[in-house]
Amino acid sequence: MPTMINKSDINDYIGFQAEPTQWHQVTQEQIDQFADCTRDHQFIHIDPEKAKQTPFGSTIAHGFLTLSMLSHFAEQNTVIIDGFYMGINSGFDKIRFLQPVTVNSRIRSHAKTLEIEEKKPGQYRLKTEVSIEIEGVDTPALIAEWISIQMVK
C-alpha cells in the first residue's frame, strides 16, 4: 500500500524507506509480450534453446521490461501526499542495469524518498531512489533515481 502523508509532514518523509513490495514472477509469456510490444526480439529474450547456450543459461527479461515494472511496484511503495489526484512520470536522473533478470525469477522493488519539493501551488516534485531486487541474488537488477510529479488539491 502507498504511504499517505499530510502536506505539513513532508519534511518528516525525506529519507523515508518504504517496505519492499510484494514479489512478482517474470514469466516467458511476459517477456514475449514485451518483445512484441517493443519489437525487440533478440534471441536472449525469446528463444529458450539458444539462450541456454549463453552465460545466463536461460532467457532474460529486457532491461526496459524490468524498468517498466517500477510503475506496477509504485502502487505499493509510493509516498502519496494527501489530496493527490494525479501523478506524472517526469523521468529519471540515473538508471543502472546491474544484473539480468532470468525467466521465472521473482522480483520486487525497494523505494526511498530522497526529495519532496512544492514547485507550484499543488504541484509536488518527488525524487525517489528505487531498486529492483531479484530473489536470492545479492546484486539488484537495477538502481535508479525516479522523478515524479504529484498534483494535489
Would you write up a description of this structure?
With 153 residues, this protein is of the alpha+beta class. The protein has a single domain (3-152), classed as Hotdog Thioesterase (Thiol Ester Dehydrase, Chain A, Roll). Helix content is 22%, strand content 39%. It is built from 4 helices and 7 strands. It has helices at residues 28-38, 43-46, 48-51, 63-77; strands at 3-5, 24-25, 79-81, 84-97, 106-120, 123-134, 142-152. The strands form 2 sheets. It has a 5-stranded antiparallel β-sheet. A two-stranded parallel sheet has the order 1-3. The two termini are 21 Å apart. The model has no long low-confidence stretch (mean pLDDT 97).
List the helices and strands and how they pair.
Layout: E1 3-5, E2 24-25, H1 28-38, H2 43-46, H3 48-51, H4 63-77, E3 79-81, E4 84-97, E5 106-120, E6 123-134, E7 142-152
Parallel strand pairs: 1-3
Antiparallel strand pairs: 2-5, 4-7, 5-6, 6-7
